[in-house]
Amino acid sequence: MGLSGTQAYPSAKRRLRLGIVGGGGTALVGQWHWTGVRLSNRWDLVAGALSSDPERAQAFGRDWFLPQDRIYSDFKNMAQVEAAREDGIDAVSICTPNWTHFPIAMAFMEAGINVICDKPMTLTNQEAHSLAQKAQETGVYFAVTHPYVFHPMVRQMREMIANGALGSVRQVLVEYAQDWGTEPDDPDNRTIAWRRDPAKVGRTSATGDIGTHALQLLEYTTGLKAAKLRADFHICGAEKAMEDTAFINLKMENGAPGMMWVTQAAPGNYCGLRLRVYGEKGGVQWDQEFPETIKYTPLNMPEQTIVRGHGAGVVPAAERMVTLPRGHGESLSDAWGNLYREIAIAIDAHQSGTVISDDLLAVPTVETGVRGVQFMNAAADSHEAGGVWVDF
């Protein structure tokens, strides 16, 4: 029996067992994942290869209270051993730098283990399609971690647009603005160094890093895909090897124009992921730095501010993601919790053969990952050709 999209999330029969590759020590991405895992209350973290250095792997594993015999320094060994255990992991989270995603994901899929992968999923379109094909061949579930759409008010926007609050979408604007790339890169910061190396990030830097989030937010919320783009890459901060800024024109599949601005060199912007959508009957906008509200501007009527919480205009699809009453602030960590909750429900249903209503979950899948990789390479194609329009 299917579950209605207006119901709360289904109860779990057990916590799923999770393994993690990468993210040890003070790595920010690993901390986000671990926070989401704990807040979801749907997972037990039981295994990990938190570093390829055996001593560091052991130290990080102890910090995360992993069992001694389930601390690994080799992801291939981890995949083989966990697949052979009766209590082996139900899924692995890949929290490593971009160029390592492909071999790690492939190793775990070949072992029959479900995958949760950071974005961008791979560096090349060919690698992305190979992962999608392997997921289909092996039957594993493959999720990609785009946490921003797991803010309740993003879900609210999606439902409002889908239900006709704006009428036909006529124009879209999305931006992701940061400022950490304004000054010269710290030469001792290894995390920054690899983000400027084409061998490790592919053909784009900021565009692949944060532009993929902007595209996914835009397409998820509007329900429309971008059909064409033209891109110009720039270095607007201190001199560096790859772009820190991109201006990208979009043409949506319904013909509506769009604009994307991606930058890591705009002083005073910290995590400025912002989306504005306008249609024939009104507009709606959301700002990730102020995630608890959306502004709805119906044509020729007073503007409305819709606040995260229960009731008062919040639709059921968004309401079930709410964990705290109004006035008690939720944040990105709560969005990560919602992400891991929905991934757990999806994997549990996938493994048990349970049918779940299409409108209950919105997990970014391997197809979403392919889309992000196609986007960043299409943007590179356009820029390298002088800013021409490119289909993707």
Question: How would you sum up this structure in a few lines?
Answer:
The chain is an alpha/beta fold. It is built from 12 helices and 14 strands.
Class computed from helices, strands and strand pairing: alpha/beta
Distance between the termini: 38 Å
Q: Describe the biggest sheet?
A: 9 strands, mixed
Mean pLDDT comes to: 94
Q: Strand content of the residues, in percent?
A: 15-25%
Give the low-pLDDT segments.
1-6
Element order: H for helix, E for strand: EHEHHEHEHEHEHHHEEEEEEEHHHE
User: Any idea what the shape is?
Assistant: globular
- Report the top-level CATH class of the largest domain: Alpha Beta
The gyration radius over C-alpha positions equals: 21 Å
Q: Determine the number of helices (DSSP H or I, runs of at least 4 residues).
A: 12
Q: Taking strands numbered 1, 2, ... along the chain, how are they ordered across the largest sheet? A: 13-12-11-10-6-9-8-7-14
CATH topology title of the largest domain: Dihydrodipicolinate Reductase, domain 2
Total beta-strand segments: 14
- Architecture of the largest domain, according to CATH? 2-Layer Sandwich
CATH superfamily of the largest domain: Dihydrodipicolinate Reductase, domain 2
> What is the domain total for the residues?
2
Helix proportion range: 25-40%
